[in-house]
Amino acid sequence: MAAVPSSMMLTALLVILPIVAVFLVKQNQDGKTKRPPRLDETIPFVSNLWQFMTNKRLFITRARAALETSPVVRCRLGPLDLHLLRGGAHASVMFRANCHSDPWILRIMQSAGYMPSDIAKLSHDDSGSGSTPRPGSLAAAAGIPLDQRVWHALHRLYDDAMVSAKATDAFADLFQHLFHDQLVTPVVGREWTEDVHIFDLLKRTMTTAATHATLGPLIMDVNPGFVDAFWQYERHVETLAFGLPDWLNRPAVRARARFSDMCRRWYEVADRAYDWDAAAAGEGADWEPVFGSSLSRGLARWAKAFGFKAESMGPVFILLLFGLHANTIPVCTWVVMELIKDPDLLQAVKKEIATAEITPDNSASTSKIFDHRKLASLPLLQSVYTEVLRLHVGVLITRTCTEPVTVAGYTLPKGSILQAPTEVGHLDECVWSTPEHPASDFWAYRHVREKETRDETTGQMSKRLEFSLAGRSASFFPFGGGIGMCPGRNFAKPEVLLAAAMVVSRFEIEHVAWLKPNGSVSDRPAQNDANYANSVAAAPDREMKVRWRRVR
Ligand code: HEM
């Protein structure tokens, strides 16, 4: 997601400032209770918002510095009065049932283009996603049945079709088959291929395979240029989330319209082709070629059940696709890049992943190649995945509390907005560093420890690695936490590990150069692209050019 141009921001600020002034007066009337310190601003009520919109990287750096001196810091961001929380136990307060993320999810839905009448339905339902309606909500007062609560229905779908073991296994098995078809099958000979660009390659192959596994093949059949349209939309999602008027944000609005039209076109074809009556009678398959997975069909059913407008169907699916690809593919790219950069690490990981192969000697088979559950339990591979998430995922986890909450001795009133920047926890030197490996460095072995075990029959002692986040898990929350935690986490891990395992086990790879966005050679490796600061997974700002040949 690209940064927002300054001229656009200036105009937006001029619109926002009068609203801010009203809040300023209101806020000056409080101050009787003990309040956490504030994040400094050169121009009160303006500087933070300006910096947040134009240079999030710097904003987060300042927030991190302030949180070193106090576990809670107040921060005004335009009309919003926020409380920033340090990671660890302080952030876990916001993962309790009395904090929710509905307003933030609603804002994302709005920025994806949901129709106002559908947004109204969602904002009218204040009962939350849990099976018991939130105390004091309309649903609690009126006894509205579970199936009429729109947030609850959405989260139940997430649990059944994304979080459950059945859904995860179905996705992982199909994904690896389709990814093999994308990546490995087309490479017939064993000769070297020059000029392979890792990020670009994974964007094309993973987007195609994961879209097919989740929404079926039809969406790409009816929409030539689908994959490019997705990545063009992805660059603008952050700008769209700021909610600027369309006339100030034309390239983003155009990219969204193009991709959203593709999703709607497919939905209309699929809706006509799918036998909803047979499915209602219990004849629906787990996966079928019209809608694809139960997740995709369930989302269509959810939107229909709540009477969403046809114009909202594109946005419903662009958000699913954004969730599916926008973080997983950069994360996988970082994993693959780290392995290629370090030949010793690559050898150690290849040895580990060989133990998770199901058909090691049958290179012609494109069906299940890896046991994805075994892959996900390999200590060193898990450590690499964790290290990539720690260093390349940055997001302000946001919650609104429905009751007063106490954090580090401060009592924050009901309705307070709490934000925990993952970077504060993820880069905390006290938690992660060792004398040789500061928290800011990638160190593949940071999350493993050696364990001595005795063979019961021979009595011989041997050492093996064991993955462990013991004592540090509170400072690691790349998927958020509590009721709003990312429901796609169980799709993300097998997808990333399967794709990375397939790349490194099927190809011999030599690193050639790092490339700048203009294609010229860079004298440094990739770093997090500053345009993606705090947009969940950061894309690499340099492409990795390699040469490779198929070995299996
Ligand atoms: C490495 C990959 C991923 C990362 C780092 C990631 C991270 C996140 C984070 C930080 C949140 C907000 C959580 C919170 O507020 O506590 C979130 C929400 C969400 N993610 Fe993911 N995600 C990833 C992959 C996926 C995938 C593969 C999908 C879909 C298949 C997905 C679907 C979603 C959805 C639908 C939400 C909103 C949930 C809600 O309505 O509350 N994510 N993700």
Automatic annotation (TrEMBL):
Cross-referenced InterPro entries: CYP450_sterol_14alpha_dmase, Cyt_P450, Cyt_P450_E_grp-IV, Cyt_P450_sf
Transmembrane segments: 6-25, 316-337
Pfam families, A to Z: p450
Sites where the protein binds heme: 486
KW Heme (keyword) present: yes
Cofactor: heme
Presence of the UniProt keyword Oxidoreductase in the record: yes
UniProt record similarity statement: Belongs to the cytochrome P450 family.
Entry protein name: Cytochrome P450
Lineage, top ranks: Eukaryota, Fungi, Dikarya, Ascomycota, Pezizomycotina
